Automatic annotation (TrEMBL):
Residues 149-342 form the Tyr recombinase domain. GO terms for biological process: DNA integration; DNA recombination. The keyword Kinase does not apply. Residues 36-126 form the Core-binding (CB) domain. Pfam families: Phage_int_SAM_1, Phage_integrase. Gene3D superfamilies: 1.10.150.130, Intergrase catalytic core. Belongs to the 'phage' integrase family. GO terms for molecular function: DNA binding. It comes from Bacillus thuringiensis. InterPro entries: CB, DNA_brk_join_enz, Integrase-like_cat_sf, Integrase_catalytic, Integrase_recombinase_N, Integrase_SAM-like_N, Tyrosine_recombinase_XerCD. Transmembrane segments: none annotated. This is Integrase. It comes from the Bacteria. The keyword DNA-binding applies.
């Protein structure tokens, strides 16, 4: 059975959830994915294959990444269907028009992401002979000024203010914020973390939590004892075990029934609850404090303690040291100001 027949008989994509079902892709691989005539497939099937046909054997796209890609591609394909009938009728001019329209609605950082996703998709279809022309190659670059990047500065005094306020008003949010600012974990890593993956290491006299980061890479992060005490208390409030247990099936930061929170829920919840504290310094911030702000704070805090850049990169799970440097750019810029070393008075 060839792929076109398989697609017809199995209705490859019937609903949004089907885009994330890998069982069809495994069946397609057994048929022989490189023998597919991509020009005969529906656009939905092209998107499905793009999402599952990973560019690397070892690095896999996360579910969150796939959802973002699907969102951006759905908007693009809806536009092409409504204006020209579909991507088979695509032209360079139509591509320019589409991204020009987006440029009027989105900030440069968001526009750059959307453009990258569409480019990768079209390049994938073209490379597999699904399009007669490579429409990804002639698009204008999206330049992002440094000033346009989100300001994720957060200072120890501000962290302590937030913690003091939350401890008396929302213990769950307090525990989450304490965890984020003392580990530098991504919110996806917090959401997926398991209680069974926490262990005490006598030789180091520390508690380490094993987490799965981007690209399914595993690393360990230290959980400081004061943070762990609060996590254990939260778990007790939720009737969950608070002793180390490698056989536990509960989430590290659990719901009342022990199950995992969704990362997108925690991210939105955290930003909203911090904003609701109405602390005075929040009025002067241009950008909201989010879980990712906490990650930047942690990186800057380690740098302030004299930790080597390479160690910070490895601890945060960054693939490139350039990403870590970007986290620290404001700190570095201020340290290099011409007048910093002069003292408190010029004359």
């Amino acid at each position: 059975m060839n792929i076109v027949n398989y697609e017809y008989h199995n209705q490859l994509v019937k609903s949004k959830s089907d885009f994330f079902d890998s069982s069809h892709f495994e069946r397609i691989m057994s048929i022989g994915i490189r023998n597919i005539d991509y020009s005969q497939l529906s656009e939905e099937s092209l998107v499905y294959l793009f999402l599952h046909d990973e560019p690397s054997l070892t690095k896999k796209r996360s579910e969150r990444t796939k959802k973002l890609y699907l969102h951006d591609l759905s908007n693009f394909l809806r536009y092409t269907k409504e204006t020209i009938g579909g991507i088979q009728e695509l032209s360079h001019n139509e591509m320019e028009i589409y991204f020009y329209q987006l440029s009027k609605k989105y900030a440069a950082t968001t526009l750059r992401r959307k453009k990258t996703v569409v480019q990768q998709f079209l390049k994938y279809v073209y490379d597999n002979n699904g399009l007669s022309e490579d429409f990804s190659s002639r698009l204008k670059k999206v330049s992002v000024k440094k000033e346009a990047l989100v300001n994720r500065d957060l200072f120890p005094e501000e962290v302590n203010e937030i913690l003091d306020t939350l401890k008396n008003t929302n213990f769950f949010m307090y525990s989450l914020f304490f965890l984020l600012t003392t580990t530098g974990l991504r919110i996806e890593e917090v959401a997926k973390a398991k209680w069974a993956d926490l262990a005490f290491h006598p030789s180091l006299n520390v508690y380490l939590l094993r987490v799965v980061g981007k690209g399914n890479k595993t690393r360990e992060v230290r959980i400081f004892e004061d943070v762990l005490d609060d996590i254990c208390y939260l778990r007790q409030l939720r009737k969950q075990i608070s002793e180390l247990d490698a056989s536990s099936r509960s989430a590290f930061l659990p719901k009342a029934d022990g199950s995992h929170y969704r990362a997108d829920y925690l991210s939105k919840y955290a930003a909203e609850k911090i904003e609701e504290t109405n602390l005075p310094f929040l009025r002067y911030r241009k950008d909201r404090i989010t879980p990712h702000t906490c990650r930047h704070f942690f990186a800057n805090y380690l740098m302030g303690k004299g930790i080597e850049l390479k160690k910070i990169r490895d601890y945060l799970g960054h693939e490139s040291i350039m990403t870590t440097e970007r986290y620290l750019r404001e700190r570095t810029r201020r340290q290099n100001l011409a007048t910093i070393d002069i003292g408190n008075s010029l004359f």
